[in-house]
Amino acid sequence: MESGLALLGGPKSVGSEHREIFAWPIITGEVEDAVLEVLRAGKMSDIDVTQKFEEEFARWLGVEYALAHNTGTAALHSAMFGVGIGKGDEIICPSITYWASCLQVYSLGGTVVFADIDPETLCIDPKDIERWVTPRTKAIMVVHYLGMPADMDAIMKIAERNGLTVIEDCSHAHGALYKGRMVGTLGDAAGFSLMSGKSLPCGEGGMMTTNDRRVYERAVAFGHYERHGFVLTLEDLKRGAGLPWGGYKYRMHQLTSAVGRVQLKHYPMLMAEIDKAMNYFWDLLEGVPGIRSHRPPKDSGSTKGGWYAPHGIYHPEELGGLSVQRFCEAVRAEGAPCYPGCNLPLHLHPLFNEIDVYNQGRPTRIANSPPGVDVRQPPGSLPVSESVQERVFTVPWFKHYRPEIIEEYAQAFRKVAENYMDLLPGDSKSGGHFGGWSTFWTTRR
Ligand SMILES: *Cc1c(COP(=O)(O)O)cnc(C)c1O
After folding, report:
1. 98 CA to middle of ligand 1, Å?
2. If pLDDT is split at 50, 70 and 90, which confidence band does 434 have?
3. What are the DSSP calls for 18-85, one per residue?
4. Is residue 2 scored above 90 in pLDDT?
5. How confident is the model over 69-87, as pLDDT tens digits?
6. Which atom, in ligand 1's list, is nearest to the CA of 195?
7. At 144, is the secondary structure helix, strand, or coil?
8. Distances (CA, A) of 95 to 118, 140, 178, 250, 346
9. Which domains does the chain have, with CATH numbers?
10. What's the CA gap between 127 and 140, in Å, rounded?
11. Among 367, 371, 370, 335, which Cα is nearest to 354's?
12. Which of 80, 164, 324, 383 has the most CB atoms lying inside 10 A of its own CB?
């Protein structure tokens, strides 16, 4: 029977290109005016606009302290220093994430141990965390991956039981709720990337947040020397005031702060529209074989915020073993963006196995560990992380609720899934390379 799949010569599901529904970031006249004002005043390196942005961000999130940074990477670095990570310490981080969830720990003299992810949430699997706890473990780095809130109740219990601090990497999940509470308020500190591809896009920038005065002051000491005089109250920190302890200069460029203030003002409304659009897309695909949404259950009180880099979960066993590559190829032929894979498992990268970054004569991963301790994790250590590439695919990231357009895209996925049998003969299942170490958003919008 002829299925009419576009890949096999049939008509496409998506009639025309819909650029407006995907355009990102959204730059309005209001954003432009805010930037020009700072530019014309020559205040790019001041901190007055940044401080207003921080106050508004802290109020929106519901935390005591927000400290703006020039990248999300820097914000997370400060959070690690803020909670006291130092030489020989270990942090536990999921293997499937962007490198900036953990790699900064090297420069603090610490190291990272990876935990596996849960195959449904794609976030760190609480059941796998304690396997990796050692006397040297200091913190758990939680990533609310691809907008999905991680299982914080279980994670906080483990942290308490083992005396660990918890840092949340919220770079994918601005405004997401975990059982009704904002992610970024649940651990001891949090970091948010605000770079232009993320769901709260401000430019290159990041925000560190905490309710803990000591964490905040340590972060200020680390890379914000210009604030030492009026922020530092703790005696041990005041002694070293005037110079940044980390040797880093981490303040936010005020053109980013200006963009951020406008973006944040409109974000709750935009986020609500994205949430409505994405849920509509997935509701249309409910019950289609082989594919599942990656979103919290309805009525759980949990949400995905701005749905950064949305993915679906793939079940090839329901589609005669059809490879995810072939599935995505057919969806793309229908006119919808769809790519297999996600971030590659970090524990297998050479930087976490063999590379000696700081000339210590040993791989940096173990250079500061006690003699005889080797935390490296060979292939096979984290089975879910190592096989997830075949089980996830990207879906369109709708920024607006336009039901008739969204229906066309949903039809592309439905049509391919329902006609999978026609694709089996041409499916070489040849593995191939997909997923990436970073920035998959640039090529997959
Ligand atoms: C983007 C990202 C970061 C780093 O943010 P930058 O602003 O790019 O430095 C950290 N963690 C995750 C999970 C990210 O996706």
Report:
1. 6
2. confident
3. -HHHH--S---HHHHHHHHHHHHHT-TT-SHHHHHHHHHHHHHHT-SEEEEESSHHHHHHHHHHHTT-
4. no
5. 999 999 999 999 999 999 9
6. 7
7. coil
8. 11, 12, 22, 26, 5
9. 6-25+268-343+387-444 (3.90.1150.10), 29-261 (3.40.640.10)
10. 13
11. 367
12. 80
Whether this prediction's pTM lies above 0.90 is answered by: yes
How far is the C-alpha of 170 from the C-alpha of 194, rounded, in Å? 10
Q: Is 260 exposed, middle or buried (0-12, 13-18, 19+ CB in 10 A)?
A: buried
Beta bridge partners of 115: 94
At 326, phi and psi to the nearest 5?
-65, -40
- pLDDT tens string 349-390: 999 999 999 999 999 999 999 999 999 999 999 999 999 999
Catalytically annotated residue among 198, 304, 399, 415: 198
Query: CA 26, CA 37: separation in Å to the nearest integer?
Result: 19
| 121 Cβ inside 6 Å of ligand 1 | no
In this prediction, residue 444 has a pLDDT band, given cuts at 50, 70 and 90, of very low
> Would you list the DSSP string of 306-345?
T--S-EEEE-GGGGTT--HHHHHHHHHHTT----B--BPP
Q: DSSP class of residue 431?
A: -
For residue 365, how many other CB atoms are within 10 A of its CB?
A: 23
Give 149-187 pLDDT, tens digit per residue. 999 999 999 999 999 999 999 999 999 999 999 999 999
Task: Name the pLDDT band for 442 (thresholds 50, 70, 90).
Answer: very low
Report the b/e string of 53-81 with b at 16+ CB within 10 A: bbeebbebbebebbbbbbbbbbbbbbbbb
Q: Is 72 in the pocket of ligand 1 (CB under 6 A)?
A: yes
* Identity of the amino acid at 424: L
Residue 15 confidence class, pLDDT cut points 50, 70, 90: confident
pLDDT at 426: 82
Does residue 215 line the site of ligand 1, with CB under 6 A? Answer: no
Q: Which atom of ligand 1 is nearest to the CA of 76?
A: 10
CA 141 to chain centre: 12
* Per-residue pLDDT band at 443 (split at 50, 70, 90): very low
C-alpha distances out from residue 315 to 29, 429, 438, Å: 44, 15, 24
Q: Whose CA is nearest to atom 5 of ligand 1?
A: 72
Q: Are 424 and 330 in contact (CB under 8 A)?
A: no
Residues 6 or more apart from 351 whose CB is under 8 A from it? 103, 357, 364, 365
The atom number, within ligand 1, closest to the CA of 100 reads 10
